[in-house]
Amino acid sequence: MMQHRSVRRLGAAGAIAGLGLAIVLAMPMLTDDPPPGEMTAPDAPSVVQPVAVAPETADAPAPLLSPPQAPVIRDAVPASPARLYGRWVGDGQVLTISPLSGAAFAVTVERDGAQQTYDATLRDGRLQVTMGIDSEWLQLAGGDGDRPCLMLGTRQRFCRAE
């Protein structure tokens, strides 16, 4: 029982010491005087004035991110939209690629009875599929006998359904 009380007293003493330290450290913020060692400029303007930029130095900055590029797959080839439409099977999943308008496509992924549809855009004969905040590329690459196949990223292979 005694040990429990001493631990309790030490906890209260520590809390009081911590509160005292917080008050001491906050004291400079309660006064109008700057902290020691900090200089003030009494005649400094209260509003920042804009700086004019000479036309020759006002070039547009380089973009922070470059446009996304499809991963390099050894036997990947650009494909026309007509070669991408349809059903593709691989690894327990089925992809269905459908045209929407122009370069826009819908890619539906079926797995274990569930379906999810993603937006895709045709770029240089490859489909960039947006999956949430990520994107993957579908590329025509390597066939399986007579059937053409697509690679999703560099890992998943889907071949034309018969």
Short description:
With 162 residues, this protein is of the alpha+beta class. It has two helices and nine strands; from the N terminus they run αβαββββββββ.
How is this structure best described in words?
By secondary structure, this protein is of the alpha+beta class. It has two domains: 1-34; 76-160, Lipocalin (Beta Barrel). The protein contains two helices and nine strands. An eight-stranded antiparallel beta barrel has the order 2-3-4-5-6-7-8-9. Strand 7 and strand 8 (149-152) form a beta hairpin. It is elongated and about 80 Å long.
What is this structure's SSE topology?
Blueprint: H1 2-30, E1 76-77, H2 81-84, E2 86-90, E3 93-101, E4 104-111, E5 114-123, E6 126-131, E7 134-141, E8 149-152, E9 156-160
Antiparallel strand pairs: 1-7, 2-3, 2-9, 3-4, 4-5, 5-6, 6-7, 7-8, 8-9
- Major β-sheet strand ordering: 2-3-4-5-6-7-8-9
> What proportion of the residues is helical, as a percent range?
10-25%
Q: What is CATH's topology name of the largest domain?
A: Lipocalin
Q: What is the rounded distance between the termini?
A: 80 Å
Strand content: 35-45%
The outline comes out as elongated
Which stretches are low in confidence, meaning pLDDT under 50 for 5 or more residues running? Answer: none
In CATH, the architecture of the largest domain is Beta Barrel
